[in-house]
């Protein structure tokens, strides 16, 4: 288990002896949240699975680009924008429709 201690806006990590890394690690101010999330993901298998489920559709949609012929910059831009819209639909549109549907039922 990692213990967290915040001193002067830097995150200090005091790892278990099993991990065989430095006893104290100083991170820049913008990285503590990423470090905390990655530590929580390593220690909590349920959170790790939730992250995996959340990222899988995005990675799958990126694999669609393997099957497309892109011969010009405008085609690349068009496919990129459509891929962004597809991801917005998956991550924002579908949950919004489900939530609105549930609210209308009850």
Description of the structure:
The protein is mostly helical and 106 residues long. The chain folds into 2 domains: 41 residues, no CATH class; 61 residues. The protein contains 3 helices and 3 strands; from the N terminus they run βββααα. A 3-stranded antiparallel sheet has the order 1-2-3, with no helix packed on it. α1 crosses α2 and α2 crosses α3. The radius of gyration is 21 Å and the shape is flat. The N terminus is likely disordered.
Please provide a brief summary of the model.
The protein is 60% helix and 11% strand. By secondary structure, it is mainly alpha-helical. The chain has a 3-stranded antiparallel β-sheet, with no helix packed on it.
Q: What fraction of residues sit in β-strands?
A: 5-15%
Largest pleated sheet: 3 strands, antiparallel
Gyration radius (Cα, Å) is: 21 Å
Helix content: 55-70%
What is the topology, as strand order, of the major beta sheet? 1-2-3
Structural class given helices, strands, pairing? mainly alpha
Q: Secondary-structure element order, as H and E? A: EEEHHH
List keywords for this structure.
106 residues; mainly alpha; disordered N terminus; single chain; flat; 11% strand; three-stranded antiparallel sheet
Task: Lay out the secondary structure.
Layout: E1 3-7, E2 10-14, E3 25-26, H1 32-43, H2 45-63, H3 73-105
